[in-house]
Amino acid sequence: MPERLRTDRAPRYPLECDHCQYPIPGDIEDGDDGRYCSVACRDAADDDSTLSDPCAYKRFVSGVEPLDSLVPNGIPADSLLLLSGDEGTRRAELGIELVWRALERGEPTVVVSLTNPPTATLERFYQNGWNVLPALENDRLRILDCYTHRLDDREAFLERRNEWTTFVGEAAADAIVEVRDPSDRRELTNSLTGALDDLEMTETGLVTIDSLDELETVFRDRQAHDFVEDIRATVCKARFVPIVATASTAGQDAPEAEYVVDGIVDLRLTDRLAPDVRLKQLAVRKLSGAQFLPQWVTYEHEPARGLFAFGPNTNARQVYDLSSGQPQPNLSR
Questions:
Q1: Per-residue confidence band for 39, with pLDDT thresholds at 50, 70 and 90
Q2: What is the pLDDT of residue 264?
Q3: Where in the chain are the domains?
Q4: Does an H or E element contain 122, and which?
Q5: 238 near 197, Cβ under 8 Å?
Q6: Which residues contact 117 (CB under 8 A, 6 or more apart)?
Q7: Is the distance from CB of 245 to CB of 209 less than 8 angstroms?
Q8: What pTM was estimated for this model as a whole?
Q9: Contacts of 323 (CB under 8 A, 6+ apart)
Q10: What is the C-alpha to C-alpha distance for residues 206 and 259, in angstroms, rounded to an integer?
């Protein structure tokens, strides 16, 4: 096993700083009540500003089985992660599930919705069997509406909603932030920052953007690229709040923003493992600051359960009922 990959060796620096809790690599700075790695940490501790747990918020486990299997030590919380995939890979469901898993952990979330009106975005949760009404009432879920502005007759749209959509819209009214002009980069940035402040999102929670494809059609020139750079700095790096954005790979060049993100998860359809079934697979292409397994994981999606993985030696006919095209839960686990 290469030396740099060993995990069973004794730690090189066994002593940890009593302030930042990182290993002490050199001489110890003794203080009145502890041992420190630097004068800065010693002085901070003397000023009663000792950090409670500076490492706890820096990584998170997504709760999505196939993704977590590839990143066993967690995803850096200061990451801007891109979900890049073919149509039909359930890319949007993965984004929705990441939000739901954060809500399950009791964390606040913000969804930047460019592809659908807010009620349709919320409906995606219900289609998966995930009831977000309590999260809306408890002010843990905020929707940035970047879609409604494009409607020529908003009143007609509201009048034509059915009973259920009307109920969801009214229940979510306080949680929806309408962005009047998403093409105004400053307004969109301010709307996102305001939602993060309202939900007190620092070192907790998750932001999703659906999608970068729509973002690039809304903005002109390099504004999408610049917007992504801005929020990566002000949200991910400054607040330690991860952002997940989706993008399609169908018949187009890679989005400009791909070059500034911290991580990329590729999703694809393949028929190489089973001629009669187009299997879905995902892999981590890059993830700054974290180790990940460099392999493809075959997965499927099931309402309530979300995305789940199955092994490469599994007979696809055992996972799918080919007459209905639906996964068979009892056989796929």
A1: very high
A2: 96
A3: 13-54, 57-264
A4: helix 118-127
A5: no
A6: 145, 147, 148, 157
A7: yes
A8: 0.84
A9: none
A10: 21
Give the 3-state secondary structure of residue 98: helix
Non-local (6+) Cβ contacts of 325 within 8 A are: none
| Residue 270 β-bridge partners | 279
**Token pair 């690599």: residue:** 25
Instruction: Report the pLDDT averaged over residues 217-221.
Output: 84
Give every CB contact of residue 68 below 8 A, 6+ residues apart in sequence: 61, 62
CA–CA separation, 316 and 322 (whole Å): 9
Report the CATH number of the 13-54 domain: 2.30.170
Tens of pLDDT, residue by residue over 298-309, are 999 999 999 999
| Residue 86 three-state SS | coil
Q: What is the pLDDT of residue 19?
A: 87
- pLDDT class for 255, splitting at 50, 70, 90? low
Positive or negative: CA dihedral 162, 163, 169, 172: negative
Distances (CA, A) of 272 to 86, 293, 295: 16, 21, 15
CA dihedral sign of residues 62, 63, 68, 74: positive
The pLDDT value recorded for residue 14 is 74
> 273-282: which pairs have CB atoms within 8 A and are 24 or more residues apart?
273/298, 273/312, 273/316, 274/315, 274/316, 274/317, 276/316, 276/317, 276/322, 277/316, 277/317, 277/320, 277/322, 278/88, 279/316, 280/88, 280/89, 280/90, 282/66, 282/67, 282/70, 282/85, 282/89, 282/94
- The amino acid sitting at 127 is Q
Of 139, 96, 98, residue with least CA distance to 121: 96
CATH of 57-264, one of 3.30.710.10, 3.40.50.300, 3.10.20.340, 1.10.10.410: 3.40.50.300
Q: Using DSSP, how many helices (H) and how many strands (E) does the chain show?
A: 13, 16
Sign of the C-alpha dihedral, residues 299, 301, 302, 306?
positive
Residues forming beta bridges with residue 23, ordered by sequence position: 16
Give Cβ neighbours of residue 27 (< 8 Å, ≥ 6 apart): none
The residue count for the chain: 333
Q: Which pair of tokens denotes residue 27?
A: 């001489």
